[in-house]
Amino acid sequence: MCTQTKAAALMANIPQADIDPSGVFKYVLIRVHSREEGDDSEVDIVRGYGWAEYHADIYDKVSEELEKDGHLDCECIGGGRIKHDAQAKKIHVYGYSMGFGRANHAVTTAKLKARYPGYDVTWDNEGY
């Protein structure tokens, strides 16, 4: 019988991407992994919000929430910006974070395409 750890069960329920419904805003790519011994499961998640003045503001809020029960650990593996035009069904990922460096925009784009089917989701490494 296969048993799933508490951390793996928690990670399975974390939305892969959560961003503001429209606008231009900062985003971070966060790697969430288990703190449980013998469990090396992990998942990368995208979070982007217009309220954040800094990329670290997003990371701090999200990681605090995910780590509160002690089963999960988070690390920010980069950041950038997202331009979300809901009316045109377009999302563009670009730029980098001064504090965390450039996220792998290809990973971010794949997660956004899964979250927003029917959207034109693009990326490049230009801009800040």
UniProtKB/TrEMBL annotation:
Show which residues constitute the signal peptide. none
Swiss-Prot/TrEMBL keywords:
Cytoplasm, Hydrolase, Protein phosphatase
Active-site residues, as the UniProt record annotates them: 55
The protein's matches in Pfam families, at most eight in alphabetical order, are given as: Ocnus
A molecular-function term among this protein's GO annotations: protein histidine phosphatase activity
E.C. designation(s): 3.9.1.3
Q: Which domain of life is it from?
A: Eukaryota
Q: Does the keyword Hydrolase apply?
A: yes
Location in the cell reads: Cytoplasm
Q: What SUPFAM superfamilies does its record include?
A: PHP14-like
* UniProt keyword annotation of Cytoplasm present: yes
The record's catalysed reaction(s) read: N(tele)-phospho-L-histidyl-[protein] + H2O = L-histidyl-[protein] + phosphate; N(pros)-phospho-L-histidyl-[protein] + H2O = L-histidyl-[protein] + phosphate
Q: Where substrate is bound, by residue?
A: 26
Tell me the InterPro entries matching this sequence. Janus, Janus_sf
Q: Which GO terms describe its cellular component?
A: cytosol
Family, similarity comment: Belongs to the janus family.
Q: How does it assemble?
A: Monomer.
Q: What does this protein do?
A: Exhibits phosphohistidine phosphatase activity.
Name the UniProt record assigns to this protein: 14 kDa phosphohistidine phosphatase
User: Organism, per UniProt?
Assistant: Seriola lalandi dorsalis
